[in-house]
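Input sequence (480 aa), recorded before submission:
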Amino acid sequence: MMDIYLSNTLTGKKEKFKPINKKEVGIYSCGPTVYWNQHIGHMYAYVQWDCLVRSLNYLGYKTKWVMNLTDVGHLTGDNEGNADTGEDKMEKGAKREGLSVWEIADKYILQFKESLRALNIKEPDILSRATKHIEEQIDLIKKIENNGFAYKTKTGLVFDTAKFPKYAKFAHLNLKDQKAGSRVEVDLEKKKPWDFLLWITNQPNHIMKWSSPWGVGFPGWHIECTAMSTKYLGQTFDIHTGGKEHIAVHHTNEIAQAFGAFNHQSANYWLHNEWLSFNGKKISKSLGNSILVSDLKNKGFDPLSLRYLIMTSHYKTGLNFTWESLKGAQTAYFKLKEIFVNLKNEVSREVSRVPLDTFNKYKKEFAQALADDLNVAKAIGLLWQVVKLKDINAKTKYELLLDFDKVLGLRLSETDLPTIELTNEEIPTKVLELKKERDTARKEKNWQKSDELREQIKKEGYILEDKNNESVLKKISSSI
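Predicted structure, token format:
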């Protein structure tokens, strides 16, 4: 197999990927907290990790992709550096909408899955809800406690980061510089401000709670990912992905938990995506600039245009989204679909072969781009290079596009130009005359003239569909 290189946050280097098991790569992705809609900033990450899974498949690996759905324990202060503070996001969502926490979870899991489908993101092999894995979380916490990495306070059971000397290494934290308001110490019984809760017991009015050895309560946010990733992928697995916002708190705590329970790290490679911004600003519900995938449809955009736009960026550099950039991406995507349909039509009426040496040459170049730290943008550039080549036939281009789309996920195989059925009375005389002339050229097997006339007809806004010995005119819809 081709060597693959990935940027590993664990080492701070782009390094050769060495899977634990050559037959299957285990991947865990931090999923959404399902208390509200997932906007396109969130979906940016999931498109990138979908490309990761598709790329590994393309490069010859089977994959097992696991993603969590956080439906308990994620407090509003967690990602802001104020770990273990604030209100549980699920309860916040429930109050906002006058629903139960369970109804909120179901509602926004559905919204998330609809966004996955719209962007043609393959649903992970396992989507695991935190509330369905309370037993696993309790068992993992027991291991951590039995190994001497936890202590009790008035708030609950706390992870003792002093027992893990490398706690600050992953995120390059300077713990001596931590100040109040950064990692706020709200529990004076904590030994260190950055020690974090494994199980929370001091909130008797919390709706979602369970019995445990430490009292009735609920798990801290971080424990669910360590519990579920290791349940489904093993105590050591290949790749853990997430947004860069997870590095300093969530993933640092995950690494600490794994050492506390197993005395070794869980994932060998940690990949983090940069953010998608909107007009240069971070997308945030609090800023009021969040855009949903459904909003794109309402504005007349094909959601796969967003997928195309995202794939023109590298996961480590992020993307500045504007409506103009999306419009440009849609123009390029629709042009690609048009090219694909034309190739499909050419292939259907001509007998040609695909030279294996040519096919394999471009397939290898495509694979090399993917193997270089998931450079999908370069792979798309190669695709456009291929369709513009004049020295390879339509059949080869068609097969290469189908092959590339295994990774790009643009649903090219499902593509036909949107058309409108018309009667001859509704078609301009000029177009009918061109069709008649083209039919004659086709019967005479004058393929060059036939193609030229087809293009003239297309410039008039119509396409020809050849079926057996007949051709049918259709008007191209204005949606492309």
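Checked by second reader. Residues 179-185 have pLDDT under 50 and may be disordered.
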